[in-house]
């Protein structure tokens, strides 16, 4: 299934994207189906698949405004330097453990919404990544069973304000500006994805390929990330793990290439679809 979060007629909703539009799940499976995070937490994905069978769309995709896949994520846990090509271009040393930082839910935007260049910088960079959405929470989750805790996967653009990222040795300030985290257009359930390592990942800026890799290239695979992260913080349904970006970021090009107003950036990950976001200056919105 392809699940979307949206607003329609002033109300929040959740639905399944099908041919011709969206089958609305909002409230159809009880109070827990008011949003995608609560739907996942109530273990209603299988029931959602059953509900959708044979149903015509309730409305067209054009009738809704998409939201970030999980607009109200409790935790957004980001992994840095998780492709060898990116680690090499940053000239950082090998690490025995994942490089971790966090992003805030209110920094996210949906497919089609503009990523904003903030007033205080002109160095907004793209970072195409695969997002992992946790389905079943836990603590000290072993690698062998980690993928059973995954609800689904989605495209993410972990936009980075590079000069603010370097203000200190902590990445946080450059990773949490409003409207810099593109998340969408939908979540594909884990059962449909199967082996995530077979997925290609590509980022394009104004149609030109900037990043090109596969999820098999991850230094720390999803299973290891879930095991590691759940050791230091409990994972909950609807939590999001951003798995890192491949080499080819604008900041490490010669000369550097930062996004500017009027640009369009796309993150495509195989069957997870294509996340598209225009770029705009904060003052223009």
Short description:
This protein is of the alpha+beta class.
Characterize the structure shown.
There is one protein chain. By secondary structure, this protein is an alpha+beta fold. It folds into two domains: 2-66, no CATH class; 76-284, Fumarylacetoacetate hydrolase, domain 2 (Alpha-Beta Complex). It is 14% helix and 33% strand. The chain has helices at 36-41, 45-52, 84-90, 162-165, 190-193, 222-232, and strands at 2-8, 11-18, 21-24, 65-66, 76-80, 99-103, 108-109, 115-117, 124-125, 128-134, 150-158, 160-161, 181-189, 200-205, 208-214, 240-242, 264-268, 274-281. Strands 1, 2, 3, 4, 5, 6, 7, 10, 11, 13 and 16 form an eleven-stranded mixed beta sheet that branches. It has a five-stranded mixed beta sheet with strand order 8-18-17-14-15, with no helix packed on it. Strands 9-12 form a two-stranded antiparallel ribbon. A hairpin with a 5-residue loop joins strand 17 (264-268) and strand 18 (274-281). The longest helix is centred in the last third of the chain and has 11 residues, at 222-232. The two termini are 34 Å apart. The model has no long low-confidence stretch (mean pLDDT 95).
């Amino acid at each position: 299934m392809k699940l979307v979060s949206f607003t329609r007629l002033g109300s929040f909703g959740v639905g399944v994207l099908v041919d011709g539009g969206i089958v609305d799940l909002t409230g159809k499976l009880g109070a827990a189906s008011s949003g995608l995070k609560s739907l996942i937490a109530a273990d209603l994905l299988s029931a959602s698949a059953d509900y959708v069978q044979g149903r015509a769309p309730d409305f067209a995709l054009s009738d809704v405004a998409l939201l970030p896949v999980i607009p109200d994520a409790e935790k957004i846990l980001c992994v840095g330097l998780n492709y060898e090509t990116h680690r090499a271009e940053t000239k950082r040393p090998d690490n025995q453990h994942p490089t971790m930082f966090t992003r805030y839910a209110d920094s996210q935007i949906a497919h089609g919404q503009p990523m904003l260049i903030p007033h205080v910088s002109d160095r907004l960079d793209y970072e195409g990544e695969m997002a992992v959405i946790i389905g079943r929470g836990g603590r000290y989750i072993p690698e062998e069973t980690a993928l059973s805790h995954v609800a689904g996967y989605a495209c993410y653009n972990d936009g980075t304000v590079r000069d603010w990222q370097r203000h200190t040795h902590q990445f946080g300030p450059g990773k949490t500006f409003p409207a810099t985290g593109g998340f969408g257009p939908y979540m594909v359930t884990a059962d449909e994805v199967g082996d995530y390592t077979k997925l290609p990942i590509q980022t394009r800026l104004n149609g030109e390929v900037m990043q090109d890799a596969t999820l098999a290239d991850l230094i720390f695979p999803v299973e290891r990330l879930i095991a590691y992260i759940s050791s230091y913080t409990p994972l909950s349904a609807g939590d999001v793990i951003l798995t890192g970006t491949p080499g080819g970021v604008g900041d490490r090009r010669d000369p550097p290439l930062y996004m500017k107003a009027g640009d369009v950036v796309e993150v495509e990950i195989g069957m997870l679809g294509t996340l598209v976001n225009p770029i705009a200056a904060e003052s223009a919105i």
